[in-house]
Amino acid sequence: MASHSKSNVCKLFVLDTNVLLHDPTCLFRFEEHDVFIPIITLEELDTHKKGMSEVARNARQASRFLDEIVSSSTDDIEDGISLKAPSRDAASGKLRLQTQALHAVLPSSLPIGKADNQILGIVMALKQADASRPAILVSKDINMRIKARALGLDAEDYFNDKVLEDTDLLYGGTREIDGDFWERNGRDLKSWQEGGRTYYQFKGPDAPKLLLNQLLWQEGEQPLQARVLRLDGKEAVLETLKDYSHQKNNVWGIVARNREQNFALNLLMNPDIDFVTLLGQAGTGKTLLTLAAGLALTLEQKLYSEIIMTRVTVPVGEDIGFLPGTEEEKMLPWMGALEDNLDVLNKSEEDGGDWGRAATRDLIRSRIKVKSLNFMRGRTFLNKYLIIDEAQNLTPKQMKTLITRAGPGTKVVCLGNISQIDTPYLTEGSSGISYVVDRFKGWEHSGHITLQRGERSRLADHAAEVL
């Protein structure tokens, strides 16, 4: 066991079925430790493999991985099969399948027939068989972990797919410039104006800590709102933002009501930024700002040919079922949010009277398409403004499927509220939106902003605080 010199003992991880259903690649994620798969886990994988759901896909993938590992190996199954080759050197432990009946005495109150309890019995038997080596149950099921601990067994959650342990560490997209910022970094400060914007170029110790398209702000006598335009080692260039809180710069009749909304509109209206993520609680204006910018860019500036809006139909993505009608009509019940926002956006055209408003509404409708997520695979969107609403309910894999649909000239906007996740097994840390925010930060064509302040009404604000 030369390779284990760094850790005193190689652990044995017993996998519960839900871990494999959650992430089939978990087999290769335990580094130098061994992975043990009980027969009952294989039995349960088999019951989950039918259907088109994400869980069924993962069950089939897990079975494929196991088949590859077992069939390609010359090792004896009794001693464990090395995971080094199948994992392409990511894991150096062994895969062990349960080859014989393992008996452990569980308290009589735990019915033996239940799969969970059989797995607990196996963990206990492994622990009794070799006391020198820790046997640890890995499960996504909280009750299962509590039961294990009650029986004196070690149990852990499976964390590998989590981007962040704590969502407070999630990149917020903004940074306040403190009072001494310019003294520290103002050595070779240059500033110039071009096309109505002011640019600042500086060198200093803070530059390496910045990220491209991060939004900086400073309050005080000379307030500043700027975006990090270029970074090169210790040198950075900032570009001042357009002030969308002023009525003269309104976007489809909408003005920014606070600093973060102004930041968001600057990202949404910038054609160089292909990917924007907006996070925020209910009522912070994510959908409204995104739609207003979309309409302005599609109908006024003609940068995009149409707006496509998709959201997870929360009985998540199974199918949109036997509602009558076309894909558009089937999606209507999920699109209440879109309707509400269009009413606000349409209100601003008062001079045209009712006829004018109806005409505008029809024009807008003709340019906004509503699509179901289930039909996104294999499509390519050219010159579209793609809005992914309720993105916190997507897994990282579904997120990848969607974002990779974007063809040339397409802008993708993801909206989400990570405190409202409805998908089973997804948490704030493993949600697709946390994943893309974390992976895309600092890319020159993407921007992110977390909206803080609700702008619905004093009632909604107060309810959010006290309830």
Automatic annotation (TrEMBL):
Keywords: ATP-binding, Nucleotide-binding. It comes from Vogesella indigofera (Pseudomonas indigofera). InterPro entries: P-loop_NTPase (IPR027417), PhoH (IPR003714), PhoH2-like (IPR051451), PIN-like_dom_sf (IPR029060), PIN_dom (IPR002716). Pfam families: PhoH, PIN_4. In the N-terminal section; belongs to the PINc/VapC protein family. Signal peptide: none annotated. SUPFAM superfamilies: P-loop containing nucleoside triphosphate hydrolases, PIN domain-like. This is PhoH family protein. Residues 11-146 form the PIN domain.
